[in-house]
Amino acid sequence: EMCIRDRYQRRVRGPHARGVHAGSGELRGNHKLAMCDHSHDGEHGHSHCAGGPDSGAEALIKGSNLGTKWLWSYEGGEFEVEFGANGEFFCHDYPRHSHWTLEGKNLTIEWEDLGTYDMVVDVCCKKMEGSYRGYPEDWRRATLAGELDHVHSHDDAHGHSHDGVQCSGHH
C-alpha cells in the first residue's frame, strides 16, 4: 500500500515525483510538502517501513506514556487534537466527551455531537487521513505533533450545566 504522503505527492506533482523525508519539509508555493522519500509498495524491491505501513498503529497513537497530540486539518483550517493512551480523544478548541478505537490501521473517533470520523493511520509517515463517516468528500488529515504531557477526564469536556444541573457528559 502506498504511503499517504506518496499518494498526495503523486496527485499534486505527478506519478514520477519523489518527495522529501518525513519530518522534514519543503515549501512549494503556499503549501508545505512533507512527503516520504521512499516507497511502501516495494517498487524498488523492498520497503523502508519495517512491517508495513499499518504495523504499530496502536503504539504510534498511544505514544510512550500518556498518549499523543496531532495536528488535525480539514477544509476550514487546523488545530491540535489529543489521543489519550486510555482511549480518550480530546480537543481544547472543541471539547467533548469523546473516544477513539483502533482496528488494525483503521481508527474511529466518536466525537459526540461533532460526529464520527473514520481515519486510516500511516505509521511510517506518522500521519492519518480519512473523513466524516458517510461523507468521504468531508476529508480530515492529521500529522503527529508529539507526546502528551497531561491527561483529561470526562469533566474537562463539560464545564457547563443544563438548566442549573451539572452536565453528566452523557447526552
Verbal overview:
By secondary structure, the chain is mainly beta. It contains two helices and twelve strands. β11 (161-162) and β12 form a beta hairpin. The strands form three sheets. An eight-stranded antiparallel β-barrel has the order 3-4-5-6-7-8-9-10. A two-stranded antiparallel ribbon has the order 1-2. It is globular.
Keywords:
171 residues, mainly beta
Topology:
Blueprint: H1 4-13, E1 26-28, E2 31-33, H2 57-62, E3 67-74, E4 77-84, E5 88-90, E6 98-103, E7 106-110, E8 116-122, E9 127-132, E10 135-147, E11 161-162, E12 165-166
A few lines on this structure:
The protein has 171 residues and is mainly β. Helix content is 9%, strand content 39%.
Spell out the helices and strands N to C.
HEEHEEEEEEEEEE
Largest β sheet strand count, sense and barrel closure:
8 strands, antiparallel, barrel
Shape: globular
- Provide mean pLDDT, rounded: 74
Task: From the alpha carbons, calculate the radius of gyration and give it in angstroms.
Answer: 18 Å
Write out the strand line-up for the largest beta sheet, numbering strands in chain order. 3-4-5-6-7-8-9-10
- The counted number of beta strands is 12
Output the number of helix runs: 2
Structural class by SSE content = mainly beta
Beta-strand content estimate:
35-45%
Low-confidence stretches: 7-35, 42-48, 158-171
